[in-house]
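tool=predict chain=A
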Amino acid sequence: MKRFNILFLLTLIFALALGACKNQEETASTEEGTDSSKTENILDNMSEMETDSVANETAPDPANADSTFITYERTPCFGQCKVFKVIVYKSGYTIYRGTNFVNNIGMFQGRLTEEQMESLRATVEEINYFSFNEEYDNENVTDLPAVITSVHMNNKKLQVRNRYHGPQELQRLYDKLDLYLDQIEWEKLETQN
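tool=predict ok
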């Protein structure tokens, strides 16, 4: 576990250093406030999620700038498992990247209502999220997808990787997130290649 933590921290530091350099270059080369630069920033931050499932602290869209509340990710398996990543910001602004076996493939943005956000905050408190372990796994069991969540609330931050026999209370959070994500009117983000 210590080896994993050290590798994770080194990867995170490397990703943040690369992101800082890239953000400085983008700031110098793009105009502020254009729709294309907002979309590129969103895509850049989602790309950083590829290497680290905990999203950056700042929102990718300056018009919706606030800090991360929840990240939610489902990883692949050898079968037909849903694969997606979501960042929910404290304002309710949400970005989504669907990869496999989901209705929305690609990058999308949307917004949760204040009532939904309050319900998510209450669920985090009710299930005592910050008491969970960082990982629930069994390396002897193969081909299981993981559900990775992180919550940033009340000056606390915790990422939980649940691949095998995590607490049943986590399922309450997953169910609520799935319900609310299905209710969002998603707006597809155009990617520039």
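The longest strand covers residues 93-100. The two ends are 39 Å apart (CA to CA).
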